Amino acid sequence: MINKLVLLFITCFIVSFSSAQINVSLDRNCLSINSALLAQSLIKAIGADNVKELIENEVSFLSVSDVDSLGRICKFDKLLSQKGSLPEDAMNKLELYLIKRETRFFICYDKLPGINDNDAYKIITEDLFARNEKSLIINVSFPGDLMILYEYEKEKAEKRNRKLSKYVYLRRQIKKYLSQ
Question: Residue 107 forms beta bridges with which residues?
Fold first, then answer.
């Protein structure tokens, strides 16, 4: 009986603590990490071949999404595309994938000058809790700035008599930012 009470207490503590967490990041690479998460999810949701096609056609988009305090996507509000677009069925697959997998994006903030990380985090989380909102709005882009140095890296590879495809480069960027 005591074991069950201890287990119940621990479970209640963990559940109440986890609902009070906020997935905030002050990291200067926060937007790149979110873009890497989105790109990886897109590959898994619609397949590598479709993402290769998007990259080759230089399709980029910005999602404006509702997330909970843990950074999990609740809903894509809209996709804004600069060149080309993500087909509606691909968008639906991506949204479903993100929701089912409970993918957690970061809620990115810039740290104010003169404030240490702990104080900045405390100010941000207190503000978010004070708002008492069920969801927040974040922007996540594909491919974001993940492809910004592709041409430079491609030229370096060519000097060594190697080829570097956009997709391979994207995968390297995903690995780079998600391994941090």
Answer: 24
Cis peptide before 143 (omega within 30 of 0): yes
- Compute the Cα dihedral for 46, 52, 57, 59 and give only its sign: positive
pTM of the predicted structure, to 2 decimals: 0.80
How far, in Å, CA of 31 to CA of 37, rounded? 10
- The pLDDT, as a whole number, for residue 14 is 36
**Cβ-proximal residues to 146 (8 Å cutoff; 6+ apart), any chain:** 32, 35, 36, 39, 170, 173, 174, 177
> Which residues does 71 contact at the CB level (< 8 Å), separation at least 6?
23, 104, 105, 106, 107, 138
CB-CB contact of 83 with 59 (8 Å): yes
**Residue 87 and residue 69: Cα distance in Å, rounded?**
29
